[in-house]
Amino acid sequence: xxxxxxxxxxxxxxxxxxxxxxxxxxxxxxxxxxxxxxxxxxxxxxxxxxxxxxxxxxxxxxxxxxxxxxxxxxxxxxxxxxxxxxxxxxxxxxxxxxxxxxxxxxxxxxxxxxxxxxxxxxxxxxxxxxxxxxxxxxxxxxxxxxxxxxxxxxxxxxxxxxxxxxxxxxxxxxxxxxxxxxxxxxxxxxxxxxxxxxxxxxxxxxxxxxxxxxxxxxxxxxxxxxxxxxxxxxxxxxxxxxxxxxxxxxxxxxxxxxxxxxxxxxxxxxxxxxxxxxxxxxxxxxxxxxxxxxxxxxxxxxxxxxxxxxxxxxxxxxxxxxxxxxxxxxxxxxxxxxxxxxxxxxxxxxxxxxxxxxxxxxxxxxxxxxxxxxxxxxxxxxxxxxxxxxxxxxxxxxxxxxxxxxxxxxxxxxxxxxxx
Length: 420
Ligand code: C5P
Hints:
Layout: H1 3-18, E1 22-27, H2 35-45, E2 49-54, H3 64-71, H4 82-87, H5 90-96, E3 99-105, H6 107-114, H7 121-128, E4 133-137, H8 141-145, H9 147-158, E5 162-163, E6 167-170, E7 176-180, H10 184-193, E8 204-209, E9 214-217, E10 220-222, H11 229-240, E11 244-249, E12 261-264, H12 268-279, E13 284-287, E14 294-296, E15 320-322, H13 326-331, E16 338-345, H14 349-359, E17 364-369, E18 381-388, E19 391-399, H15 400-419
Parallel strand pairs: 1-2, 1-3, 3-4, 4-5, 8-11, 8-13, 11-12, 13-16, 16-17
Antiparallel strand pairs: 6-7, 9-10, 14-15, 17-18, 18-19
Helix pairs in contact: 1-10, 2-3, 2-10, 5-7, 6-9, 11-15
The protein binds cytidine-5'-monophosphate.
């Protein structure tokens, strides 16, 4: 293959791998800091979202303003800055990251990271994150070859931190040898390679999300508190895994992830129609929607007036009819996709989930306790138990975004088992 076509092909693969990934680019003090500007440009070209954290030393080599303009986000500078903390606090930032990439990583920074220090924002983030960390060392060849630096790098690798480079060649100080930071293009490709591709690369996934609204009259309805956040986060994770993703959304105020085919519906019956049509041509169906179990039997043509209430003045009776069970209907199809349900319960969470798994003929159910404070409906966090016919696994409280990633990995594993 001609070189330019080969390069195009590599770029296309890594573009998908970095698409929508949250990358914290840590820039430390060294002459190679100027290359961070080009690195940000390349990461963004790969559709990654980039937030830059600069150490004090880095600011001597390149201005925060340059990196802010290129990243499209404010640059994070200090740990003890109340204004920055109010915007996105350091723990929030640590949770936001899918990868912390430190380029350039100076000898001093590497030493501080090895010691587990938390004496500035960047080292603190490295301690607080569960995201992978990669460092691109950049220093004078003698500093790189120094036995202390070598020991530090070995220790970091033993802890699971990835080293990108360094390369070898002419250095800013005139020396020749190892310690040059890898070029931005190599760093962007190596970063992309850290993300697995194609969990769902040739798969079609349909996800229902949000609440439904069941009209009583032209101005009133019955609904619930579902925000749709979990379903939207799963759609993002499905897209990240390479799936062709359809998101059937009830009325929510969320933006669909880029690349999802969104179908907006209001009522359970509309969701049923959309879901059954989409499920006829999909591999995996995930029902996160909090579908209203019942709808008013009769929809009043006009707004119901208090004084024309056929019942007494003090009470009003609305007759309700059962809505179709969407996920059960999908799972009853002869060509049923791998079907995943959610069970929001307030008691005996796992027992009820097992019961639902069997009753609705599901392949997997994700159970969560909506009575627990700070998780479930409308919250940004969730803690769940994943239940499938042969087992179950608990996932501790984490952000819905992180949880979505973990759940999609579980779904991929069980899907492969069922279909192999
Ligand atoms: O029976 P329950 O409502 O607790 O079951 C929850 C699961 O069933 C969820 O996955 C939800 O999306 C799905 N469901 C559905 N259609 C309904 C009711 C629930 O798809 N009418």
